[in-house]
## 1
Amino acid sequence: MTTQPAIISLKNIGKTFHLGAHQIRGAHDISFDLHAGRTLALVGESGSGKTTCARIIMREYIADSGELLFNGSAITDNSPKGLKQYRKNVQMIFQDPFASLNPAHTVDYHLRRPLSLYQGHLKGQAVTDKIHDLLTQVELDPEIVAPKHPHDLSGGQRQRINIARTLAVGAKAIIADEPTSMLDVSVRQGVLELLNRMKRDLGLALLYITHDVATAHYVAEDIMVMYGGQILEWGDVKAVLSNPQHDYTRMLLAAVPDPDIRFDDPRSRLEPNAVNRVREQAKLLHPHIRSAGPNHFYRHIDG
Ligand SMILES: Nc1ncnc2c1ncn2[C@@H]1O[C@H](COP(=O)(O)OP(=O)(O)OP(=O)(O)O)[C@@H](O)[C@H]1O
């Protein structure tokens, strides 16, 4: 059982989108905690509600029901200043490492900017030294990389700059939405290892969003499987993946040849037939899940 306090808690969060006469359930009765020094993997197919959860945590969406807690307290300050203070602590890394960087500016600028906004006590040479430290922390050579523009860098290097920006802000929790899915397979492992090391060394709380069960196995201690805006199963990543209790988790896993095979091993690639089988079976499962009412919590992280 973990003794560290949760940095972020979602309590019974619900969010429905209204598109004309249609209602789409983005999140239904979602509850989970993000703890310092731990990664929770949020796994599910496209449209399962992963990004909705991320946007609620980032306070880009306001939940219809339930509560978002930061360090155990309800968030009451909705002023721009309150939001800025919150985002100092909770940062997001996006799927597309290029889109989140401004092509007109250098790496130095991309790090200088959050430092001036969030670490205003640093001045002059201290800012340059901090930029040097940040680039070293994300395993890039400061002398070479700082003067470069995003288009001079590889996808993996750009994602490292995005990670360095979250460190420049001083974030305690990072929401990483498919952070490696647009990267070449050969550099994915390095970026995930960096996230793992930051989590360990800096005690960050990470939410790792992915549709890829194999990478969840590699980076996370805990896992939650989502479908149709609901959590179907959650718990210790090794326990859930080795002994899934929900049919849908079993179906997702059936598409991966062997969870013990590393995700960058070619043998871990999904077989097209298996993927199609999961999708077809998920369609059949869908009405059952929707009519099931409350979430199915088959395991509890602390349990
Ligand atoms: N702003 C929105 N307006 C209307 N519907 C939305 C909105 N955002 C999400 N949805 C719907 O809510 C459901 C959950 O979407 P969400 O983006 O959270 O899923 P996801 O698991 O993150 O998918 P992906 O992996 O494709 O990003 C989907 O049916 C989606 O179409």
## 2
Amino acid sequence: MNKIKEKEEILLIEGQRKLEGVLKVSGAKNSALPNMAASILTDDYLYLENVPELLDIETMSSLLSNIGIDVHRNGNSILLKLSKEPNLKASYEFVKKMRASVLVLGPLLARFGNAQVSLPGGCAIGERPIDLHIEALQKMGADITLKEGDIIAKAPNGLKGAKIEFRKKTVTGTENIMMAATLAKGTTIIKNAAKEPEVVDLANLLIKMGADIEGAGTDEIIINGVSYLKGAKHKIIPDRIEAGTFAVLSALTEGKILIENYPFEYLEYVNNILEDIGISVIKVGERNAVIKRRENIKPINIETKEYPYFPTDLQAQFMVLLCFAEGTSIIKENIFENRFMHVPELRRMGADINLDGFGKVATVKGVKSLEGTIVKATDLRASAAMLIAGLVAKGTTIIEDIYHLFRGYEKIEEKLNGIGAKIERKYKKDI
Ligand SMILES: CC(=O)N[C@H]1[C@@H](OP(=O)(O)OP(=O)(O)OC[C@H]2O[C@@H](n3ccc(=O)[nH]c3=O)[C@H](O)[C@@H]2O)O[C@H](CO)[C@@H](O)[C@@H]1O
Ligand SMILES: C=C(OP(=O)(O)O)C(=O)O
């Protein structure tokens, strides 16, 4: 799909339709991406199941193919194998589309002693530097320079184990260093490691490949380097952010949606918030959920924080939920400096939201209803928020720049239209 066409696509949503049926949670994008990058660490086959069909997965597939990995997709399964002399460069063409491209840096350097990866630019939600990845690799003996916008990393004699203490928790930073450390000489200790379920999922794959890793899911991960890794088969965990997005949508409708494959274990904090504000999270069987409003939604103060606390990737969707609370809620964004771009768009639909605290704090006053209009999807999760808002608003909503949504939500129109929504994907010129 070419970029110009992508930018011309909109979603047309008919609001307040009755939604009833089953929504199935897909595999986690943020787990599939690092798991795919791990294919660089072996000459054997890596077979990944439950990989969502998303733009970001396509980007990672193209990037890995460009490096020299054969990527074969069959529905939600992907077979990956390094099959030729690798090209050790990840160019800006890929990195600009998706910051997670930086996940190839650690594996390339660990396996081949050389890597050139374009430095990601700032993105819509914030500056997002990768200084912590670079400093950690330097501690492991890498020589890193910047040249014409590229990170040139060298470790001709291999990486060595090191004690790394991240100043700040970083998800892809922890993943990059964990992958690099699997093939380093000696022991690496990562302190203040990210504890996200996606980090644990990657560790589980690496262990199947023969890596010696302990402590993933805690603040301290210990990795004893091994000389080679073998192939493995692995099933990607469910996407807790997609599940949380569906939970918000269910809470704002009649509660007739069954969310299949709901990862209760990764959403404990989020489920407690739902319960606190008057929304029941009902377990149906082992892995399904019904999310149902018990009473009028109560206001609450929430702030984003690293796992196991409230995820920044659900902040925009919860803001839509709190637009319907009886009273005033406060939402503080602590992870990214510019992740409230959905606020002006929600205001256009009649939401009463004010920003203060240098744009870090949103005060959300509950309103009776939202009204459909033309809004923009400003980033991935903001687009999910606009989609929920459009589905529950009066009248018709048009969401522009909708390509963001397809980075992270598998077959979203198909899934939602399957439970009674009316969402049409069109070109701007055709409406
Ligand atoms: C592909 C993937 O998994 N993406 C997720 C990952 O992004 P990502 O891994 O990029 O986010 P990080 O956890 O690294 O970022 C957390 C904070 O640390 C800062 N930072 C990070 C690295 C660094 O070298 N220097 C630095 O200052 C960032 O700017 C941000 O303020 O975690 C985020 C936080 O949960 C999620 O929103 C993203 O969906
Ligand atoms: C911010 C996100 O992704 P990425 O880190 O790939 O930009 C996200 O998934 O919400």
## 3
Amino acid sequence: MAETDLYPVKRALISVSDKSGLVERARRLAKAGVEIISTGGTLKALTEAGVKARDASEITEYPEMMDGRVKTLHPRIHGGLLARREERGDVEAMASHAIPQIDLLMVNLYPFEEAVASGADLKDCIAKIDVGGPAMIRAAAKNHAHVCVCVEGEDLDAVLAAMDRHDGQTPLALRRKLAAKAFSRTAAYDTAIAHRLAGDVEEPARDYFTEGGPRLSALRYGENPHQKAGLYAVAEARPGVATARQVQGKELSFNNIADADAALELAAEFDAGTEAAAVIVKHANPCGAAVAGTLAEAYENALAADPVSAFGGIVALNRTLDAQTADAVARIFTEVVIAPDADEAALEILSGKKNLRVLLTGGLPDRTQPGWSVKSVAGGLLVQERDIGRVTQKDLKIVTERAPSESEMADLLFAWTVVKHVKSNAIVYAKNRATAGIGMGQTSRLEAARLAFRKAEEAARENKWDAPATEGSVCASDAFFPFADGVQAAIEAGATAIIQPGGSIRDEEVIDAANQAGIAMVFTGMRHFRH
Ligand SMILES: NC(=O)c1ncn([C@@H]2O[C@H](COP(=O)(O)O)[C@@H](O)[C@H]2O)c1NC=O
């Protein structure tokens, strides 16, 4: 394929569902001497605005039919987009079959994604699957050696600007960039369709993994300033950080978004109707979490768990942010607050903190909704189901001579929920349904237990408590104890009950250590590694 750098735009085909900006852009094309071809609704809008355009049906010599299912699917359209200008055979075919050469395509697709988002039923969603649009986009993008393809108004703006600069011509670099974007657009569109159809199938095919949709925001940088980054939508939208409304504060960073997500996913584990939850996250790990009767109390307890780490933290709440909680949050430097909603008085208080980012999600991410979690590895993507595993009291197996008391049981279930959201190896001490010490991301379970205790000792010093809150606490371990030493460390920290998956070949030694100390231990039968 010979590639011509600058190539003129003499004829354009415009077929758009979203007609915003259409007339103004078409006028600019017409003014540049470009002939316009158009389909039904687009043609009508142009004609009504006094912009001259030819009816695509006049070219195909077929009317639009089957409710628009067939309008541009014709060799006279696709030939004009696909013909190689330097191939004699292609040029002769255009001449002998009355195929008009098309140099520019402007198409935006039937709003399939919007139909899904509005909860339309399957039949209505299927009606919104665009066939002719993607076919033309692919044809034009394939032939970008000569053809410009635009899938959004801003693409056409870039083409018009290039035409202004190059006497009605466009450079190859722009055409290639637009072609790459066009194929990304049709890929995202097809992904949305595949996901919607798979949602109606009991055991969907997983032979191909497709994810990702439009960019929601171009972030200033990634985890570090030298890394480019962006936030993208996925086909299965859930209320959460990606779809949240930012009501105040500085631009969100990559790390803010990642941490706000980690915080909100944990806060959403707790039923907002029965208990208020507050979570403080630093570097993707909770440094404090608590549930209580009110949000303010939950927040104060979460903060007390590790006031040093909470500085510059991300706070997530499972209920509407109220004035009392906002007041408490505003007292220390906080990067982000994320909550389902906020009342007026709370927003008024936080508005004094100009840099504090406030995100309102309109709801909580559904902790029971299945979905994918994706991690990139060299040369591939590692894909797994989201960890929506949960245990309730009836799933627990009491393995020690002593059973947990009622209040220990409440704390065990709380600690187990928190430990699921802590990077492995993870140990969480909890008391009165607040974390007392968290040991995260250690390469040995024993070290995680020791770290959690050290954190509790530091918190006691900060809060001027007589003893660390691990005294009389419970302990959760995200995976089984391979040796009794981790259990011993928990006992030394003051834990009186332990929750862990069980399943080690040394379970007996581990249970013996608990029995000897007179503490209670329960097995969940479920592990919550998190890397
Ligand atoms: N069937 C076809 O041949 C066809 N050709 C273009 N379209 C779509 O029709 C829409 C524009 O329709 P109108 O100009 O009638 O409002 C565009 O979103 C375009 O992508 C088609 N529609 C669906 O497949």
## 4
Amino acid sequence: MNKFSVVIAGGGSTYTPGIVTMLLDNLDQFPIRKLKLYDNDEERQRVIGEALEIVLRENAPEIEYAFTTDPDEAFTDVDFCFAHIRTGKYKMRELDEKIPLKHGVVGQETCGPGGIAYGMRSIGDMIELIDIMEKYSPDCWMLNYSNPAAIVAEACRVLRPKAKVLNICDMPVGTLRRMSQIIGKQPKDLDVRYFGLNHFGWWTSIKDKEGHEYLPEIRDYVAKHGYLTQVEVDTQHMDQSWQETHKKAKDLLAVDPRFLPNTYLKYYFYPDYVVEHSDIHYTRANEVIDGREKEVFSAAERIVEKGTAKNESFSAGSHATFIVDLARAIAYNTHERMVMIVENNGAIANFDDDAMVEVPCIVGTDGPEPLSQGKIPEFERALMYQQVTVEKLVVKAYVEGSYQKLWQALTLSKTVPSAKVAKALLDDLIEANKEYWPELH
Ligand SMILES: NC(=O)c1ccc[n+]([C@@H]2O[C@H](COP(=O)([O-])OP(=O)(O)OC[C@H]3O[C@@H](n4cnc5c(N)ncnc54)[C@H](O)[C@@H]3O)[C@@H](O)[C@H]2O)c1
Ligand SMILES: O=P(O)(O)OC[C@H]1O[C@H](O[C@H]2[C@H](O)[C@@H](O)[C@@H](O)O[C@@H]2CO)[C@H](O)[C@@H](O)[C@@H]1O
Ligand SMILES: [Mn+2]
């Protein structure tokens, strides 16, 4: 069996140890000959890199391994790049969340002004990463889950339309896992129909392989409890803020009970509630810095100190398993059905062809083939049109260096109450992001 060479970009990410653990657990499904970690932060890369060196030595010494900040070393001779970079790291995520709150607006990693600011930071780095990949390994596929995925995907469509980049999000997988618990099934037993944008969508059908429809049963549960199942799916989702988000899905469902909502709609349907329940002094970024980041980095440091990983384990979560499924689909033409972010081109019949939408696709050696989701109702369509236009304006603002277009993007966001607030916010965001954004005029 062919063995693959993989580089993880954002090798110092909190997700890297979980992903490597999951790759090692699945070597029979996806054999690896070479594994490299690449990050532009030497210190973060060193801690995670040294710990994983010990993990590999103890579990899979046959895999050639390296960690580096050198793009040439990282990207030479690779078949797959798993990309999860965070331009500006948690320091900037914290500002993305806190600056909007100062203006009474939702402060969130990927939604509203925070997502727009993060998008403006990520586009340049993502395009650079694609160019590096194509320079050193022209046949390599990039499986990208760097956020904000909607804006990054639109930037790839506009700036690198031919690149072998697959944009994905694990929220549909994570929520399907919760749904499967509700009905006592496994995610692999179920096929979904879904339409929307990234972090902005709805399930219209959840069927088993015999064709039985479970949506009504799941809806009855979600109407009472949201997606709260109390079974530990992903460790960080036991955090208070995620528990509240899963619970809040019941109020999202109430707005249109025909479909099962993505939890991220909370920031668009109930921004007032979100702001009221936010603490400007302690946002999700702080929770992650004090939680996941500390846990992962302390575990890595303990491994290095002891010289063994025998008593440590990293949790993989649904985020990680999704990636092996996708890599296998490309490598072995498995025709796996997966929800992905792709150019619409008719998949949603009454939506723009050039919109980056999130729909189920059949994935094989040539990439994803979107499945037709038919026509969508006016309410969802109008919401999606507003949001996709925000995302397109951000990319245009980046490309043209346009202050005006970014102001329009913020004004159009459903999370922002007026052009006045949008302008004040924009000026604060420009100041905070001057190290990262192109100059706007
Ligand atoms: N699509 C999804 O569903 C999904 C799910 C989870 C996380 N994510 C995303 O994955 C990314 C990582 O998340 P995290 O919480 O582990 O963040 P993190 O800050 O722990 O890790 C990101 C790493 O990327 C590195 N980095 C930044 N710019 C880089 C560049 N240009 N080249 C190489 N490395 C670079 C940073 O130094 C850091 O070590 C984020 O973008 C996050 O939003 C996406
Ligand atoms: O606040 P964070 O950093 O914990 O999470 C933000 C990310 O949340 C989603 O990803 C989840 C995923 O849904 C879940 O199944 C599991 O794997 O954990 C992930 C991280 O919590 C979302 O899809 C990402 O885009 C966000 O970055
Ligand atoms: Mn996501």
